[in-house]
Amino acid sequence: MKGSREAERTGTAFRVQQLTRVYGEGPAAVHALRGVDLKVPAGDLVVLLGASGSGKSTLLNILGGLDRATAGTAHFFDQELTAMADVALTRYRRHHVGFVFQFYNLMPSLTARENVDLVTEIADDPLPADEALSLVGLDHRQDHFPSELSGGEQQRVAIARAVAKRPTVLFCDEPTGALDSTTGRQVLRVLQDVNANLGTTVMIVTHAAATAAMAHRVIEMADGAVRNVTVNETRLSAEEIEW
Amino acid sequence: MVSPLDRKLLRDLWRMKLQTSAIGLVIAVGVLLLVMMGGLVNSLEQTRQAYYDRYRLADVFAPVKRAPDHLLTRLSEIPGVAAVEGRVVGGALVDIEDQTVPVRAQAVSLPAFGEPRLNAVYLAEGRRLDPRHMDEILLLQGFADAHDLEPGDSISATIHGARHTFRIAGLAQAPEFLYSTAPGELAPDDARFAVIWMNEEALAAALDLDGAFNEALISLERGAQAPAIIDAADRILMRYGGTGAYGLVDQISNRFITEEISGLRVSSRSVPPVFMGVAAFLLYIVISRMIEAERTQIGLLKAFGYTSTEIGWHYLKFILLVSITGALLGCALGVLSGQALSGVYRQYYKFPFLLFRVDPGSFMTAILVSVASASAGGFLVLRKIFALAPAVAMRPPAPADYSGSARLVAALKRYLDQPTRMIVRRVARQPMRAFASTIGIAVGMGLAVAMLGVLGGFDKAVSLGFNVIDRSDATVTFVEPLGEKTLFELKRLDGVIEVEPFRSVSVVFRNGVKTHRGALSGSVSPAELNRAMSEDVEQVYARKDGVILSDPLARKLAIQPGDEVTVEVREGRRPVLSLPVTGTFRSLLGAPAYYEIGALNDALNEPQRVSGAYLRIDAANETEVYEAIKNMPAVAGITLKADARQSLERMMNEGAGATRYYMAIIAAIITFGIVYNSARIAYAERAHDLASLRVLGFTKGEAAYVLLGELGLITLAALPIGALIGIGLAGAIAAGFSTDLYTIPADVGPDSIGNGAMAVIIAAIIAGWLVKRDVDRLELVSALKSRE
Q: Would you say the ipTM is above 0.90?
């Protein structure tokens, strides 16, 4: 997979066929995904919308290599994610994927810069940590610990950490869920910049429908299936989004 | 109807079953030791007292050379004396077919009719002596069992140079021979020491003591003072060759059992608290972690209207369940191991019966102590529950503040990668907790190292004693001091390579108020076969101008080289000597003192007398030499070094030696308990971080490094501290348990430390492996969803 970085800015990043995920067995079984079919072009900013329980996070987790499908296939370019062993999935996450979570998931014992370094140390061709931090507008807060940062700042560090490895794809699960509108817009702005400037495919899971206006592609999910896929002709910038 | 909170309690216990079992086990071991050792102290004391009372053991023993029977009336008139018994005692040699050398025996008289007034015997088998048959004896049961002798069998023995054949009427035990070793030995060996009880008239005739006694037994009235009566008895017996009366406290068998009991008592009071302390610490960190993790639940309960007391009680019940379960388990195991150990004790201390009985109160004490110490750990945490406001509890905790540790790592920054920084910062953020874990592990290791050190020291001392200090093959003692002519007889024997004479007199050493009853040995200088060695294994020579004292004797008398010691000789002319102490030397067994043999004989005005000799013998002629010596009438006994060494080593491997495995297990339990709990808690606190690392693309091994690295750091830090604790503890054990009867050597060598460290590392690896399994199974998605 190495050396194909340029190729990964074009083509189909994800190809999903009849993807199914069942938790539990028998009468207690929960069908989180019921045969999802989907294509995500590389370089898109995709927003996944849906009520809670619609399966959007499950889909994101499987595409991110965090969870396994019960049936069906998911391809990342020509690699079949659903056939990968644990070690291969770890390698996939390590070299291709960036994550941003609702609760930031920063290491409290590391400073902002060190949290970013955590990733640059194991990545092949990372952005320098200060560059990643200046990308999210936090170059002046490098040596602060998470306990000394606001929620929005923590989330921006998490984004810097995610993009520092120059991921092919950036997954964001409710990235603004714990933030107020102003800081939320700042975070979305950063994600939009990453997509536009670095060419990273960005997939954002959210239940804030307004976010959809900034996406190339909006995927609506309900009851474990894709209900509707919309391609936006015109996109709003993060600042224009109604909160 | 089980309340929902109680159901939560049971599920919490089940969820943390390994952790709580580890804590419960530490408590159980503490209680086990408390119950077992306390029970043994109790049982040994009560059994000893009952045994002494029932068989009327004397309070004062007054040996004398030969005193006419009518003196007994004078002794009984001493105010405070309750009863007096005169008897005849002497050395004997018992011939046993399968034994190269005859067995040393003590012959003791029993009155022809009725029971002795004092020092009665317990008849284990057979019947009492028939006064019509002078050749009947009672034989010490242990000896009879060791040689398959039964009532009705015959044995032959030499008393005072004459051979007799005796018929065994019965097998017996007596409280004065509770601990019976061959003379001059530490370890009891049933096969090599016998007691023969025989008709008074017959023994007196054999020893030329008709119408006389050579030992007076005295019992005291309630409240009478032994020292005054000892003085009075000494005055009466002095003219008849009294060598000095002594109280029961100085009686050798009683001293051994007394030292054993007091040693047990010290251990029972000092060792269990260590376990309780460790358990309290573990519960403290477990409960504080639980409360931290369950703060939202606590806030919710408070919001519902539960009082802080109700919630506190919920967590306290957790502590109570763990500690009471541990304590009950400990009680049960304590009784079992106490019973097992009673059996071991009966091998060494010849009680006719030894019931392991725990005072019911001590069960209560054990349970209360464990509950109290466990709760002490918990109460510190419960304050947090009271302090928690419902609203605050409902919000997730802010990220832990690590800013304080920034400077610490700044210097190392260049050399540490991020995961290592995480380890270092975490330790630096809660240094007290890391320190406490380190100390806990170090204590566990220290216990193991100290025990290994003491046992290793023992092995070394035994090897030094039998290879370097004593280079003879056998020791011959004579019935009474003889002229040097006997030495020539020994030297003439074919196969005797070297003969080194010694003189031994019973004396009282005195330095101010400190006294010691013992023997002063006259030794040739320079000694070749039985040498005195200093602490650093340099030979110390006996001199004409002063005495050299063994370390335990110098300690007991609080005397140092250069000081003068008063030596009151209790034999012959009974001179009182004032001699300078010219040196000290090490000793494993007893508290000997040496003086140049010529000087000693001069002081006694008995030139050229010897009490016995050390021999070096050509192995090829061994049997002939022993056969010849056996037939020399002047010989009171012969001890083979190989036999003495064998019985000492057997005791080390069977009795006390088994303790080393016991201690290793205990150390492993403590260490494992602490390491595993530290690991579990670190894991619980960091599952979230670890999942994040895994999501970021760290491998399982890399994620585990962050967690286990901290454990490794704590464990590594504990190793040198554990070694130091071990060295200190071994020193304390050596100082606290050494007496003038025997010296407990403390020699913590690299091997003890290595083995102790090994046990710690193995425990850490197992604990680490158990937690690593959880890291590997980490549910990435669910870990990220939850806030903690």
A: no
